[in-house]
C-alpha cells in the first residue's frame, strides 16, 4: 500500500502501553483549536477528545491519531467565517456549502497508512463517524469494535450534533428525535 504524501505536521500519533498484544483502542481526532484548546461551546470536540484519552488510560493502552484537519478540513479562518454564518441561522453543513466547501472536506487515508506503518492490523475504534470505519477498513485495518464517542449533549451544541446525525450520518443513539 502506498503511503499518502504528507508533511510531518499532518498528524501526530500518541501511543500508550502495549498496542500489539490485542487490537488497541484508537481515536482518530481532527484538530479543533476552538474546541480542544479554547473550550468552544459550539461543538463536542473537546469532550470527545477527553473521552477518548480517558478510555485509553482506563484500558492502559491505545493510540490517539491527532490530525491537522481544522474545521472538517476547511481550515481555521474558513471555520470562523462558517461560525458567522451559523450565528445568522445556518447549520454547519449549510455554512460550509455557502462558503463553497463540501459539508466535510476531511480525508481519512492518513490514519490507515499510519496504522499500517505501525504494524497495526486491527483496532477498536472510538468514533461516531462511519466514514472513519470505512476508511480504515479500506486501508486493510479491521475494525473489530466501534466504541461510541457520544457524550452528553450541551444545549449549546445539541443542534450541531443533530445535524451531524441527520445530514452526515454520524451515529448518535441518545439524541432526542425532533
Number of strands: 5
Major β-sheet profile: 5 strands, mixed
Number of domains: 2
Secondary structure category: alpha/beta
Seen as an oligomer or otherwise, the chain set is single chain
CATH architecture assignment of the largest domain: 3-Layer(aba) Sandwich
Question: What percent of residues are in strands?
Answer: 15-25%
Order of secondary-structure elements: EEHHEHHHHEHEH
Radius of gyration: 16 Å
Shape: globular
Helix content: 40-55%
CATH topology of the largest domain: Rossmann fold
Q: What's the N-to-C terminus distance?
A: 44 Å
What is the CATH homologous superfamily assignment of the largest domain?
GTP cyclohydrolase II
Query: What is the residue-mean pLDDT, rounded to a whole number?
Result: 87
Low-confidence stretches: none
| Discrete helix count | 8
Can you identify the CATH class of the largest domain? Alpha Beta
Strand order of the largest sheet: 1-3-2-4-5
Catalytic activity: GTP + 4 H2O = 2,5-diamino-6-hydroxy-4-(5-phosphoribosylamino)-pyrimidine + formate + 2 phosphate + 3 H(+)
Keywords: GTP-binding, Hydrolase, Metal-binding, Nucleotide-binding, Riboflavin biosynthesis, Zinc
GO molecular function: GTP binding; GTP cyclohydrolase II activity; metal ion binding
Pfam family, one: GTP_cyclohydro2
